[in-house]
């Protein structure tokens, strides 16, 4: 019997050390961008959408650091942080 794989939910687990590393790198890059006068949110969105490291300043080694992570790792940390801080504590009605 064939199973319809489009109806099944796949699971994905992020290692806690990967989460901490992504958090530290994002914080470092955020502050480096801000120190150089850039809007960190706009620059990070540009990088995440395009993969072009030119959106990230080289100030403070930020460009080198952000390239140590895959963009999906960065997105996971951003989503986790947002949901934990803004959605999960609201509970269900």
Describe this structure in words.
The protein is 56% helix and 0% strand. With 93 residues, the chain is mainly α. The protein has one domain. The chain is globular, with a radius of gyration of 17 Å. The N and C termini lie far apart (40 Å).
Break the fold down into its secondary structure elements and pairings.
Blueprint: H1 16-35, H2 40-50, H3 62-66, H4 71-86
Helix pairs in contact: 1-2, 1-4
Number of strands: 0
Task: Report the helical percentage.
Answer: 55-70%
* Biggest pleated sheet: none
Number of domains: 1
Number of helical segments?
Answer: 4
Distance between the termini: 40 Å
| Sheet/helix structural class | mainly alpha
Mean pLDDT: 87
Oligomeric assembly: single chain
Low confidence ranges: none
β-strand amount: under 5%
**Radius of gyration over C-alpha positions, nearest whole angstrom:** 17 Å
The shape is globular
Order of helices and strands: HHHH
Keywords:
about 90 residues, about 55% helix
Short structural description:
The chain is an all-alpha fold. Helices cover 56% and strands 0% of the residues.
């Amino acid at each position: 019997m064939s199973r319809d794989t489009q109806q099944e939910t796949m699971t994905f687990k992020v290692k806690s050390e990967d989460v901490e590393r992504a958090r530290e790198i994002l914080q470092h890059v955020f502050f480096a961008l801000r120190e150089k006068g850039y809007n960190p949110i706009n620059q990070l969105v540009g990088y995440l959408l395009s993969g072009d490291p030119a959106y990230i300043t080289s100030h403070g080694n930020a460009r080198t650091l952000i390239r140590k992570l895959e963009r999906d790792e960065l997105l996971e940390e951003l989503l986790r942080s947002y949901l934990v801080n803004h959605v999960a504590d609201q509970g269900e009605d």
